[in-house]
Each structure stands twice: as structure tokens, then as C-alpha cells.
Specification:
- The protein is of the alpha/beta class and 107 residues long.
- It has three helices and three strands.
- Helices cover 47% and strands 16% of the residues.
- The radius of gyration is 15 Å and the shape is elongated.
């Protein structure tokens, strides 16, 4: 899985290539990961995370901490995958993320 530490190295490498090739501005760093909030999300399907992707699984404080670590590594955009959950579970997960996690990432 791609850890925040590995992401730091990758972002630094990308920035060096960006500068070397004379690009203006800065790249936007995105990350895709499966999100599972303990006590909220329910798995309907189970399979191993795709190679190179993290599985963001834990309670709210754990997820905030991990997402902040990725932000500190340079990630500006997250795509949170909910495809292993039912529609109802996905809706609960999105609502909890917007109400309890996202505000803590913007502070």
C-alpha cells in the first residue's frame, strides 16, 4: 500500500520532473482509496485492496489522522471509494465523512 511516507517521496520526484521539464505552476496530487468508517460502514463485498492503494479503515479520529498525513505528504484531492458497500451504507458513510471528518481536515 502507498503510505504517506512513500507519497512524500513520490511527490518530491514528481516535483523534480515538473521543474526539470519547465512546467509552470504545480501538479495537483490526487489519491484514490477505499473508505470504511467503523460503526457506520458495512461491507457487502470483500476483496483485497488494489495494489498501490491504501485502505482507509478505522474510527473517525484514526481516519482524520491518516488523511491529514496524506495531506501533509502533498495530497490535495481524495477520491474515496465506497464500491464495497451497499447504497445505504455508502450514504451513511458519505454523510458521516462530510459531517465529522471533512471539517477536521479543513481546520
Amino acid at each position: 500500500n502507498l503510505t504517506p511516507e512513500a507519497m512524500i517521496e513520490g511527490v518530491a520526484h514528481l516535483n523534480r520532473l515538473w521543474a526539470k521539464n519547465g512546467r509552470t505552476g504545480a501538479p495537483v496530487i490526487s489519491m484514490r482509496a477505499t473508505l470504511f468508517i467503523e460503526g457506520v460502514s458495512q461491507d457487502e463485498l470483500t476483496y483485497a485492496p488494489r495494489p498501490g492503494r491504501d485502505l482507509l479503515r478505522g474510527d473517525i479520529d484514526t481516519l482524520v489522522s491518516r488523511l491529514r498525513a496524506y495531506q501533509a505528504a502533498g495530497v490535495q484531492h481524495f477520491l474515496l471509494e465506497l464500491s464495497m458497500q451497499s447504497f445505504e451504507s455508502s450514504a451513511r458513510t458519505m454523510e458521516m465523512f462530510m459531517n465529522k471528518i471533512k471539517p477536521k481536515l479543513n481546520s
